[in-house]
Automatic annotation (TrEMBL):
Biased composition (Polar residues): 60-73
Listed transmembrane segments: none
Protein name (record): WRKY domain-containing protein
Key word NAD present: no
Biased composition (Basic and acidic residues): 74-84
SUPFAM superfamilies on file: WRKY DNA-binding domain (SSF118290)
GO biological process, alphabetically ordered: leaf senescence; response to hydrogen peroxide; response to ozone; response to salicylic acid
Ranges of biased composition (kind: Low complexity): 188-200
Lineage, opening ranks: Eukaryota, Viridiplantae, Streptophyta, Embryophyta, Tracheophyta
Keywords associated with the record: DNA-binding, Nucleus, Transcription, Transcription regulation
Region (Disordered): 60-108, 172-200
WRKY domain segment(s): 107-175
Major subcellular site: nucleus
Cellular localization per UniProt: Nucleus
Amino acid sequence: MGDWEQKNHLINELAEGRELAKQLQSYLNLPFSPNETQEVLVQRIIASYEKALSMLNCSVGTSSPPSLNGSPRSDQDSDPEHRNTRLGKRKSMPKWTKQVRVGPGMGIEGPLEDGFSWRKYGQKDILGAKHPRGYYRCTHRHGRGCLATKQVQRSDEDPTILDVSYKGSHTCNNSSSLAAAAPPPPAADQTHQQPTQQNQSEEQLLMNYFRTGLKVLTDDLHTNHQDNTVIPSFHYPSSSNIQNWQNNLAENFTPPFLSPATSGTSYFSASPSGFNSYQNFQSDQLTEIISSSAATSGTNSPTIGNLDFQFGNAHEFDPHFTFDNPGFFS
DNA sequence: GGTATTTGACCTTC
DNA sequence: GAAGGTCAAATACC
């Protein structure tokens, strides 16, 4: 099935679910609505979403995540994926960036606490950049095979801002502050496919960003001058974790909370317990947009404790907080 | 002595 | 050949 056709099927399926939910809502507003009808509508809504999720699974579930248990060099060299890793071309590794504001006197060598333990393994002068780029990898790369790396480079425009680019995910479970601040939610449904350790770690990291440590840099930067202010943007270049994101969505989105839809724009709200509210979800747009309400609304709300993720069209999207992957569901 | 950092060399991609 | 990313020996630090 072609991508476009598949997306259309997906849209239709989700739109049907939305209409059914609207019907259910209208029935709920009636003083004497028949329970049988409500039950039927619920069943149809569930069936619709299950079908949509099934379609998503079919479209992206064929790829397998890269092995992360890597015995060090020998295996990696024979495996193109690991060879790429060794060569710095992590084509299927999740990648996201953030910008961290540091104090004027702090260098990139200064403490940049993000909850993980990093070891510097290189530094390069980058063409056209005023400042060198530092290369870091997880301290537990060898002991636990953790392939997470990050690059830190001081911004040319504003030396107090560090561009931090993360690649790969932590499989060492060494997150201290992040994990402690926001432990991953318990599995809602054991019948769902359980994430691998790697995927769980990535989800945990991302969720932790969503829920706790992340502070969205607004135009009002001076207001949080004391803090390390981060502007994250996510880049999921390939499919290794799409399955788990879908599962996460499936586990946390609760269609009965549908409310009368406002056209075109869809909102998810991230609460401390995960994604738990839902409006007018158009899944083909899921790939394109996540934005923070703080950024899009221009409000001065630096924390993300109640961050809304907006799944709308790309024009509404704040570039500081992106899943930059056009082929996410294709 | 163990661990972290520095830095020149090496490798791959473009 | 240039550039970016990584390796690994040398060095520094605790």
